[in-house]
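Sharing a chain and its predicted structure for anyone who wants a worked example. Both blocks are below, sequence first, tokens second.
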Amino acid sequence: EVTVKVSLGPELIAIPGVAGLSVSEAAAAIEAQDLCVSGTQGSPTKPATGTIPAKGTEVEPGTCVTITTN
């Protein structure tokens, strides 16, 4: 008897919402989801306004995310 198991690839992770968090809090939330932070677009001293890719986008573990600020 042979069992064949088909993989659809790694389980995807949704980018978390980080708007309103400090950049360091946003980075911690992103990294807690097994993602990496590639940097900040905007002022690192202002609160986060979002991410690239956007909140809710499903990506593979280890994907790098940019935190955006005003």
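Comments welcome. The longest strand covers residues 36-41.
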